[in-house]
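User: Fold this, then the next.

Assistant: Folding the first:
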Amino acid sequence: MEALIAAAQHGKEVTVVVELLARFDEEANINWATRLEEVGAHVVYGVVGHKTHAKMLMVVRREEGKLRRYVHLGTGNYHPRTARLYTDFGLFTCNEEVCADVSEVFSQLTSLGKVRTLNHLWQSPFSMHLEVLRAIRNEIRLALSGKRAQIIAKMNALLEPETINALYEASQAGVKIDLIVRGVCALRPGVAGLSENIRVRSVIGRFLEHTRIFYFRNDLKHDVYLSSADWMTETFSAALKCAFRYSTKSSKSA
């Protein structure tokens, strides 16, 4: 935040989306927003009716006469205290397709623009739920065709009924599923005829496990998504969150 304030003071164009409904941090966020506005930064307070929960940052700079974008996408907040207490992942990239997606999301948050198709990001409440179900069903299709199918997912909570039912269906089709769920999990693993191919574990250690990771084998394409979202009803329908792909295709240019 101090770096953003300094950037605005030095004449850089700075836009910040501040979530005023952040748990335990409402007062601090209001104070930061006031300081940013005082130095000329453009502050946006999210979208009415949705909690803004995505964690992303974009820097646009001129290099050799051309504009180039750099993007950071993370599973955790930009917060000094939680950065020392939580385990989180982040991707820092200049991949133009990823940068274009992030730019599109920022345009949605700061204007009245329509939602467009994104190449590497799943965004709730628009596409993430459907894409998660599509990815699960794709593994089911591969398993039924005789190919090896696998899903690994790590999250804080697993509660969304349609996703759980899709995982049960995948298990019955022969998809091997490993779930790492730190908190509440409404799925029952190891039930004969229902979920014998599903294993659920929890990780407890020195740091709070905060990363969300979704892996789909996808016929050796190995699609990996890092996310700010758990698989919960309110996550899919009432919050602006993002999952971003770091697959074999995108990693070559990231």
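Now the next one, as you asked:
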Amino acid sequence: MLTAWYFVLHRPQAGVALRERYAGIYRLLCNKYYFDWFNENVLARLTRGIGLVLWRGGDQAIIDGAMVNGTAGMIGRLAGVTRLLQSGFLYSYAFWMIIGLAALLGWFLTHS
């Protein structure tokens, strides 16, 4: 408290002289050791860059593009092919089931 009284009330020019003499230390302390500058210009910019890469590469390309839209497109193409195989006649479905069972039985008999 005595130091504040001396430099502010009693001899304010002494404070100005000290500030000019130790300008580097004064600037370092006023800028809080440049931690705020480092945080804003290095860490925050790096974090935003990583987030942008993960958003575009991970979310848009992989999740939205390949998984969501890719799966929907694949199901649409598979449904289009399956639609061509369906005739709607019960005897046709029974015939193909018998053919499939015969093929499965033949495979079991030849491999056992």
